[in-house]
Amino acid sequence: MIKKTKIFYPQWMIVLDNILKNDKHENVYVYGICKQLKITYSHIYSIIVLLEEKEYINTEKQGRKVIITLTKIGKEKGILINKLMNNP
């Protein structure tokens, strides 16, 4: 009998996958990601800074809100991560 094991992904991959899923419908806000993934704002923000350094995303500040958009590289990586996470 083969036992199914749970695969743990790095959090930046989970955040990038979440941004890709939400990017199709509307603007993606840091606070929205916090609520969906149930992770603190400060932790999500540190992941956002990492993704921005890797040039996967761009951020734009509108008042107190931070809007996230995927770059071309980010969309490509996000699609690959999505395939990996859905077909382990």
The named CATH superfamily: Winged helix-like DNA-binding domain superfamily/Winged helix DNA-binding domain
Give me the CATH fold name: Arc Repressor Mutant, subunit A
* H/E element sequence: HEHHEEH
- Low-confidence parts, pLDDT < 50 over ≥5 residues? none
* Biggest sheet strand line-up: 1-3-2
Radius of gyration: 14 Å
Give me the secondary-structure category. alpha+beta
How much strand content do the residues show? 15-25%
Assembly level: single chain
How far the N terminus sits from the C terminus, by CA atoms, comes to 18 Å
The total number of structural domains is 1
Tell me the layout of helices and strands:
Layout: H1 11-23, E1 28-29, H2 30-37, H3 41-53, E2 57-62, E3 65-70, H4 72-86
Antiparallel strand pairs: 1-3, 2-3
Provide structural commentary:
With 88 residues, the protein is an alpha+beta fold. The protein has helices spanning 11-23, 30-37, 41-53, 72-86, and strands at 28-29, 57-62, 65-70. A three-stranded antiparallel sheet has the order 1-3-2. The longest helix is centred in the C-terminal third of the chain and has 15 residues, at 72-86.
Main attributes of the structure:
3 strands, Arc Repressor Mutant, subunit A, three-stranded antiparallel beta sheet
